[in-house]
Structures are given as structure tokens and as C-alpha cells.
Write a structure and sequence with these properties.
- Pfam families: DUF5753 (PF19054), HTH_31 (PF13560).
- It comes from Actinomadura rubrisoli.
- The chain is α/β, with parallel strands linked by helices.
- It folds into two domains: 96 residues, 434 Repressor (Amino-terminal Domain), CATH 1.10.260; 180 residues, Endonuclease, Chain A, CATH 3.30.870.
- The chain contains 14 helices and six strands.
- Helix 2 runs parallel beside helix 5 and helix 4 packs across helix 5.
- The longest helix is centred in the C-terminal third of the chain and has 17 residues.
- The chain is elongated and about 70 Å long.
Length: 291
């Protein structure tokens, strides 16, 4: 691991120990989230056993800041560490069971969390494999995409998507946005030709803004890590979080090591993506097909 990156991480963690981590711990709701329940009870069990955060860190083979992040739910408890805790505290596998429940549970708040992170982000990096990213969609394109799916209430989902866009772009200092689009995004028709014409015109206008960069990964780019699926990297409160797409619901990655893996994939995609100028030319060429 890059020692400069690790030093920066430790500096941010130290800076947030009494601020961000304590604030996150105070906002935990163990009645509404299994992960919050795990974080709260980890701290209660630790204190009941008379252990300091440093002592638990020594037991787990990690530093004290990791324990603090477990207890504030800014980092989800790892299975290997839960196994050690269950063994040492004789909990009959309770923490391992709780992690299993948490991973299987659909708590229904992932989209709300995503919108909140997007609204607070100072930098948003996106990779999209098949459709125009939601933040860059026109209303007509979004409507065509949502009505083609299995949404119970596409009108409500459409309004929610438009509000997400407004929360990101309609503010005095919008975030720096970089979007890598797979060539399939350009080839896939969503809605009528008129819808596609409006969407390409919108992408071209967005790409001219100083805080938005849109680049295309062309068909001949070959295999790369982005083939695993779409994702986002969001810089929020001086730290990066990752969000990966899935068929039914997305997944957040908070652990710095997991986030770094996504960031490396993003950089790799950037190595094979067309530069901004040629990418704009590709968007114009697609627009002309629908003229």
C-alpha cells in the first residue's frame, strides 16, 4: 500500500475521532438498522468486558481507530473479527449471526443513502456499462427507462430521480463530475428516437460545462475491470465511499481497502477511455444518427 495514502488515511481518522466518529456514533439507531445494532452492541460488550478500544484492537490485530469505526458504523464489522469476538467473549456466534442477518436484510434505505451522499459530495466519479447514468438523464430518457422496468410506481421514481439531479447540480458549488460511459450506453436505444436525440443533446451540453467531464470507452478498448459492473466513487466529508450497482439494489463500500480497489478499477478504465474531445465527437456522431 502507498505509505503516503496510508498516512493521509490515519491523519483523517485522527482528525475525526472526536468529531465525525462521535457524531456518527450518536446518530446510531439500533432499532432501525441491523448494522447499527451490531455497532452499538459491540461497544456495550467491549465495555462490559472492561476492555479499552486499544485492547480490543490488539485482540483483533487492528488499530484503535478501526474499533472506533466499527462502533460508529463508519466501517462494518468484518467476519474474521466477529469470529474472534464471538470466541473470546463466548457469545455463541452472536456477532457472526448478526452479520449474516445484516448482509441478507433489505433495509430499504439504500437509495435514500445514495441520494444523500450525492447531494453532499464534492466529487463524483461514475462508470456506467449499459445506460446513461441517472444523474445525467433527461426526464424523457429517465421516464422511458423506468417504465420499461418492474417499478411499482415509475412516476414517483421519476420525480425522485429528478430531485436527485437537482440536489447535485442546482447548488452554488456543484461537485466535480467525471463519467466514463461504455460504448453500449451510446448504442442502446431507450425510448423513441426523439428521446435519444434529446438525451444526446443533453450529454453534449453537459460535457461543455467546466465541472463535468464525459468520456467514452469505445468498443475496441478490450477487456478491463469495468466489465464487472457499474459503480460510483463519491468524495464526501474528505473521504471516499464507493457504490456498486446490482440487479435489485446497490451496495455501499466504506472500508478504505475496498474503496481503493474500486478506485484502481476506475483509474484503469480511465487509461482505456477516449479523451474528452474525441468523446464529445462520438456523442455528436450519435446525435446525428437521430437527426
Amino acid at each position: 500500500m502507498n505509505p503516503l495514502w496510508l498516512s493521509s488515511l490515519r491523519s483523517r481518522t485522527h482528525r475525526n475521532k472526536r468529531g465525525g466518529l462521535m457524531h456518527a456514533r450518536d446518530s446510531l439507531d439500533p432499532r432501525g438498522s441491523i448494522w447499527h445494532f451490531i455497532a452499538v452492541h459491540l461497544r456495550r460488550y467491549r465495555e462490559a468486558h472492561g476492555m479499552s478500544g486499544q485492547a480490543l484492537g490488539d485482540l483483533l490485530g487492528c488499530d484503535r481507530s478501526t474499533v472506533s469505526r466499527y462502533e460508529s458504523n463508519t466501517l462494518k464489522l468484518k467476519r474474521d473479527h466477529a469470529k474472534i469476538i464471538d470466541r473470546e467473549w463466548n457469545t455463541n456466534g452472536m456477532f457472526m449471526d448478526l452479520i449474516g442477518f445484516a448482509e441478507r436484510a433489505d433495509e430499504g434505505d439504500w437509495l435514500v443513502n445514495l441520494a444523500d451522499y450525492e447531494a453532499r459530495a464534492t466529487r463524483i466519479r461514475m462508470w456506467e456499462t449499459s445506460v446513461v447514468p441517472g444523474l445525467l438523464q433527461t426526464r424523457d430518457y429517465a421516464n422511458a427507462a423506468l417504465t420499461a422496468g418492474t417499478n411499482d410506481d415509475p412516476d414517483a421514481d421519476l420525480d425522485r430521480r429528478m430531485r436527485r439531479q437537482a440536489s447535485v447540480f442546482d447548488k452554488p458549488r456543484p461537485p466535480r463530475v467525471t463519467a466514463f460511459l461504455n460504448w453500449v450506453v451510446l448504442a442502446q436505444q431507450v425510448g423513441s428516437p426523439e428521446v435519444m436525440r434529446g438525451q444526446f443533446a443533453h450529454l453534449i451540453e453537459l460535457s461543455k460545462l467546466p465541472h463535468i467531464s464525459i468520456r467514452v470507452v469505445e468498443r475496441h478498448a478490450g477487456a478491463h475491470p469495468g466489465l464487472d459492473g457499474s459503480f460510483k466513487l463519491l468524495t464526501v466529508d474528505d473521504r471516499d465511499v464507493a457504490y456498486t450497482e446490482a440487479a435489485t439494489r446497490g451496495r455501499f463500500l466504506m472500508d478504505p481497502y475496498d474503496v481503493q480497489e474500486v478506485a484502481v478499477s476506475y483509474d484503469w478504465i480511465g487509461d482505456v477511455a477516449a479523451p474528452v474531445g474525441p468523446s464529445q465527437a462520438l456523442l455528436v456522431a450519435e446525435l446525428e444518427k437521430y437527426a
